[in-house]
Amino acid sequence: MRRLTRDRILSIALITPSALALLVFVYGFIGFTAFASLTKWDALLPDFTFVGLRNYAKLFSIQRFQLDLRNTVTFTLFFLLACLVIGFLLAVLIDQRIRGESLFRSIFLFPMAISFVVTGVVWRWLLAPGTEQTGSYGVNLLFEQVGLHFLKNGWYTAPIVWHLPPDSFAGGLLNSTGLGFLTSPMFGIPWPMFSIVIAATWQMSGYTMALYLAGLRGIPDELREAARMDGASEFQVYRHIIVPLLTPITLSAVIVLGHISLKIFDLVVAMTGSGPGFSTDVPAFYMFDTTFRGNHFAQGAGIAMIILLVVAVLVIPYLIYSARTEVQQ
Amino acid sequence: MTPSARPARPFRLRRLLIYVVLFLAAAFFLLPVYVLLITGLKSFQEVNLATMWAWPQSPSLASFAKAWNGSQVEGFRGLSGSFWNSVSLAVPATLLSALLGSINGYILAKWKFRGSDVLFPLMLFGMFIPYQSILIPLVQVLQRLGQITKPLSVALLALSVPPALAGFPPWLANFVPAYGTIGGLILVHVVYGIPITTLIFRNYYAAIPTELVEAAKIDGAGLLGIYRWVLFPLSMPGFVVVIIWQFTSIWNDFLFGLIVTSRPAVQPITVALNNLAGSYIVQWNVQMAGALLAALPTLLIYIVLGRFFMRGLLAGSLKG
Q1: Is the Cβ pair B136, A28 closer than 8 Å?
Q2: pTM here?
Q3: What is the ipTM metric for this complex?
Q4: Dihedral-angle region of residue A295 (phi above 0 means left; psi in -120 to 50 means alpha; beta otherwise)
Q5: Averaged pLDDT score across all residues of chain B
């Protein structure tokens, strides 16, 4: 009995350093950042004069930050969609008892082992469009050589933002309902962001493939057989049996990829930076830029808190849900 | 038409289609590697945009040498120094966080105490936070820490050593935890590595039957004895997964390296590569060679120990 109590104390003593470190480095630091975002700290030397939510109010009125939000939404939507669709398709194909399965799996997954910086450096070169003088580079050159000229474009250098033209039918409709602001480029889709989406999808879609493959392997064959017996086509089997059964995996993938995309930084720095007209600027890059280059600490802290809040909205319900299901087991 | 030929044809066509799509996808995934390789292998004379996609006529390692050593004439740093910085950063940080994770996981799996089920998710939260939200105080704290540890690094720098050991203490001074040192960066990676390593080990140990622990208790073993003689010998696969995962993420980290190390002498390779690639004086073939050098260690680990890498990946998102 004495032994047990001593071990009890020892067990708590052993986990205390880690718990304390996280208490300070995670919760304490977040608390400090939250506090700093409510102050006037705008130079190297701290100025902790309390200003309330003024930094936040200012942030949302700054055009660069508004564009960042647009870019992040664009990136998150298309990156998630691409990873889920490509990952699912590859997993289904690999699951068809094919030859060289492990080789294909390895090829689709290896980009996960590489740094975002390497990915960014390579894709910047691949998607470099070239100029009139130099001729085409990279992928554009490839398109030229195989006769797909129409696919050539400026990639991350083209300051194109797709948005509803105000004089179009849909634009007119929005105008007449007081939603005319939706036709501004602020609510458009910046084309340069797709270069980042391509590179990020190249890196991460193998991950969703691995998740889905593990899920597919966990579905008993009898289920599919039973559905086929009932006369379901192969498509119907996937649509009504497999995909619903894989929902928890889709959820995990959305959480993990979503939180990666909301804080994406390395890839953007290595590939484009802010891009033409801030078309590839993202909150994490703005935060770095304004805090560590501009010394606008309070503003940087504000951006950091907004990123954290958005990520927390995504992650905390998931953590609670996972903890609950674990207790039930 | 024989009766058996009819169902066979669409079947074969379907197989063919599956392979065509898989090969196209594989080509997409391997395309950047192909470009990295052929561009890096080209000599400086051969770098011609028109033949960018062609295999080099006379492959040479000159670009790799240049990316590794840098060029004084052209005025850019090579990656060799930062490569070794990354090694001396990632190896100790990986081992330390694996050890911490193993102990935490052991306690959270086999020595549950009141509140441990609350503590665990609170610890896990650190895995998901965007690090932007801790960078500002992190820099402040590391700078303060540097003021405290400064005498130590000064002493290490001033220490006179026999000529045979020349260069040893100054090198060691980089490992004193502070802002702008490798030691500071190790500290950061160890702390923010705790959540994921604890998670992987906790799930790993949870799968080991508690009867083993109970039996050892009856035999009179204590907490440390059980860990040392029962759990630890069974931990190898867990350690392999955690070590691969941590090494890969620390090697590939860019944000902490960028924020914590401002001097090129202590920068990790990702930061150095970004500087190399961002410089207009460095040719594309040197950039590609540099990118390949930066990717090589983790790629090799992936090729040799891929299935453990996979397990770490799945552990990060799926329970168990």
Answers
A1: no
A2: 0.91
A3: 0.91
A4: left
A5: 87
